[in-house]
Design a protein that fits this description.
The complex is a heterodimer of chains A (88) and B (195).
Chain A (H helix, E strand, L loop, with lengths): L2 E4 L3 E4 L4 E5 L13 H9 L7 E7 L7 E7 L5 E6 L5
Antiparallel strand pairs in A: 1-2, 3-4, 4-5, 5-6
Chain B lengths: L13 E3 L11 E5 L4 E7 L11 E2 L2 E2 L7 E3 L3 E7 L2 E6 L4 H8 L5 E5 L4 E7 L3 H8 L12 E6 L2 E10 L2 E8 L3 H12 L4 E3 L1
Parallel strand pairs in B: 2-14
Antiparallel strand pairs in B: 1-14, 2-10, 3-8, 3-9, 4-5, 6-7, 7-8, 10-13, 11-12, 12-13
Helix pairs in contact in B: 2-3
The chains are: A mainly beta (88), B mainly beta (195).
Chain lengths: 88, 195
């Protein structure tokens, strides 16, 4: 069981959160022409790092906000959390 | 409003659980609270309106996490950034809220019919909640609130008093029956009185 420090609510159990995937993926700019390959990369291609990973989590049973979490995928240690519009 | 009880066929008055040979004063008291005005107030993302000048009755909206602003009739719970949950015995307040909060800046939703409200009172209240909710209740103080889960049911928990502990649980009306069963089940070992 992880304990995640929500930047809005404080330390909470993982049970209150939903995992939201890789937090480093950036959507191609709106209205910009995008090749099939770029779109495919954005939608499907993900790294699967062993070690530090920046992730998105949704505090779905709390403040309902998306947050960023820097977590070690091996030890599950959480180093930092931040609001979704902040750099981590 | 919530005048029509969501738990009328579930909440039976009386003593239950391990109540024998115990002083009735020390039992957990469980009641359903009805007839409340429950309103969600959300400030739109693009809104630049300052919260300072906006008052409901005499209460301000505060963006301080977990804080409850309150007076005799009304409690305003922090529900998330720019998101509040107002509970009041005064149903006339809704008109005041619509006047105070401009539609272009705030979304006002009347949730009065959509919640089941259960109130727990007694020394062991936090022990009961610890059984189904992962929150560290040692950190829940008087006039603070949290959103969390109880046995998988999303609940808002408002700590009204701390001597003895008095806590209100708000859940979606459709989950009211399940929540009531979960709560009363967790209360059995302490003995409880449904009032």
């Amino acid at each position: 069981m992880l304990h995640i420090k929500c930047p809005h609510c404080g330390l909470r159990s993982q049970n209150e959160f939903a995992y939201g995937g890789d937090g480093t993926v950036k959507r191609p700019e709106l209205n910009k022409k995008v090749s099939d390959k770029e779109w495919d990369t954005f939608v499907y291609l993900r790294k699967s790092p062993r070690g530090k990973h920046t992730e998105l989590w949704h505090h779905v049973s709390g403040c309902r906000q998306w947050i960023k979490v820097e977590r070690d995928t091996v030890t599950h240690e959480i180093f930092k959390t931040a609001k979704v519009n902040e750099d981590i | 409003m919530t005048a029509i009880s969501s738990l009328q066929h579930v909440h039976k008055k009386g003593l239950f659980g391990d109540y024998e040979d115990k002083d009735e004063k020390n039992l957990i008291k469980i009641s359903e609270v009805t007839n409340l005005l429950i309103v969600q107030i959300v400030q739109h993302k693009g809104s630049n309106v300052s919260l300072r000048g906006l008052k409901v009755g005499e209460l301000n909206l505060s963006n301080e996490a977990l804080k409850v602003n309150f007076n005799n009739d009304t409690r305003i719970l922090w529900n998330g950034p720019n998101n509040w949950f107002l509970i009041s015995k005064n149903k006339e307040l809704l008109k005041n809220i619509h006047k105070t909060f401009n539609e272009t800046d705030f979304a006002i939703t009347d949730l009065s019919h959509s919640r089941a409200v259960i109130e727990l009172e007694g020394e062991n209240t936090k022990e009961v909640l610890k059984k189904g909710c992962p929150f560290n209740f040692n950190e829940l103080h008087k006039n603070t609130c949290i959103n969390s889960i109880f046995n998988g049911i999303t609940v808002t928990i408002d700590m009204i008093e701390d001597s003895p502990n008095k806590i209100r649980l708000y859940a979606l009306r459709s989950f009211g029956e399940s929540l009531h069963h979960s709560i009363t089940d967790a209360c059995l070992e302490f003995g409880y009185k449904n009032i």
